[in-house]
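User: Here's a chain of 335 residues. Predict its fold as tokens.
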Amino acid sequence: MTVRKAWIWATAAVGAGLSLVMLLAVGVYMVAGNLAGSLGRGPVALAKNAVPAAYATLVEKWGNLCSAINPALLAAQLYQESGFNPNAKSPAAAEGIAQFIPGTWAIHGIDGNGDGVRDVWDPRDAIPSAASYDCKLASYVKDAPGNQTENMLAAYNAGAYAVIKYGGVPPYKETQNYVRTITTLQKSFAAPVRRVDPSKQAAGAIYFAQKKLGTPYLWGGNGTADQGGRFDCSGLTKAAYETVGITLPRVANDQYNAGPHPKRAELLPGDLVFFSDDLTDSRAIRHVGIYVGGGYMIDAPRTGAVIRFDPIDTSDYFGATRVTEDGAKALPTTV
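Assistant: Prediction complete.
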């Protein structure tokens, strides 16, 4: 059976009420061997709208400042540090979109927009400063064995001396987790250079959502007994993927970063599909559903409605995410 025929059958299952999960499982594993899902080599571009429009040009420009970084990696750092919030301030006094502490900013902050002021609260200064600082760290550890980018990230977290001392990423759990998180998370901000692998957990997630069809919507619903087993949109998608061993963030705009982003023509059942009133900013996403094929999703739409099939081709369709276990694990718990 060809890939095309496999997905024709999967689509027909939605309309005919056949065993969708069985066909999905067949389809998902049939195409798994034919699709490749890596960033590939060469320049790394940002995925469409993965970075708020106000910062995308800055990230694209400064993300190419040196060979140790790329725009997707810089975007992953900014998201992990602040969720692209220019007013973020941590309990440790880290400030701004790039979360510089005052002492580091005093040394490494630059006047990125050329207005004569180095302002940690201005992304036009803070984003260039983050890229510049990354590249300086990379130069400090350039002679250390191992991967240049991983050593740079380790220096960002533990200091250049530790990288030099240990000849690469030091044996600190926090530092190793930081390096793994950023290098994994960058994949959700990079434009795929080819079709991305289907999720092996897709069929199981859809199976769960299918069983919830007809359940009344509840704002903030997680499906718990005290909530009558009801869900809101992101509560449903989170619960569906938890049944197959993947833990997603609670809100839709963070779930968008749980994997790479297939184009509309490349959607496969199990992909998360997102909707927003601002089609230039993933942080403005307000709704999510699980794609089932044929232009339809299962979603928990709104108060007064029930979990149901809905079309995805609406004016507020934002994009999609092919959930990966590594991508979900890399997401920060709070942004």
